[in-house]
Amino acid sequence: MRWVAALVALTACAGRPERQGLAKDWVGVDTARRGELSLSCEPKDAEVFLDGVAQGTCLDFSGTPRGLAVGEGLHRVDVKKRGFLPYQTYYEPSGANASLAPTLQPTSSSQGDSR
């Protein structure tokens, strides 16, 4: 229920940064524990999952114009593409931006594939 109060308070203050800070203080939103994760993957069109939920491709979060926004707490990040071994790591934001540059390895069945 607290997140509903945060959403209502922040929406009511949209476009007014001086009031957004007050709204965040009022509802106790800890933005210092959030972060942004920039991804630079090979292959570039690999899919990105945050806690098992599809977020887009690595190209979507290459840092331009934005990285993957990650909320407070420990999160599982998966990068997958058919024909490649999946990549998995964990990320806990600390208020700073971070970068991740996984290179997916082809599966043994796709190494001889000329496609």
Descriptors:
three-stranded mixed β-sheet; 3 helices; 115 residues; alpha+beta; disordered N terminus; globular; Immunoglobulin-like
Please summarize the sheet with the most strands.
4 strands, antiparallel
**Side-by-side strand order of the widest sheet:** 3-2-5-6
What Rg do the Cα atoms give?
18 Å
Global structural class:
alpha+beta
| Beta-strand percent range | 25-35%
The CATH architecture name of the largest domain reads Sandwich
In a nutshell, what does this entry contain?
With 115 residues, the chain is an alpha+beta fold. 23% of the residues lie in helices and 28% in strands. It has a four-stranded antiparallel β-sheet with strand order 3-2-5-6, with no helix packed on it. Strands 4-1-7 form a three-stranded mixed β-sheet, with no helix packed on it.
Q: Would you kindly provide a written description of the structure presented here, covering whatever features stand out?
A:
The chain has two domains: 1-31; 34-102, Sandwich (Immunoglobulin-like), CATH 2.60.40. The protein is 23% helix and 28% strand. It has helices spanning 2-12, 17-27, 108-111; strands at 35-39, 47-50, 53-57, 68-70, 75-80, 87-91, 97-100. Helix 1 packs antiparallel against helix 2 (17-27). 13% of the residues are buried. It contains three helices and seven strands. The strands form two sheets. It has a four-stranded antiparallel β-sheet, with no helix packed on it. The chain is globular. Strand 2 and strand 3 form a beta hairpin. The protein has 115 residues and is of the alpha+beta class. The termini are far apart.
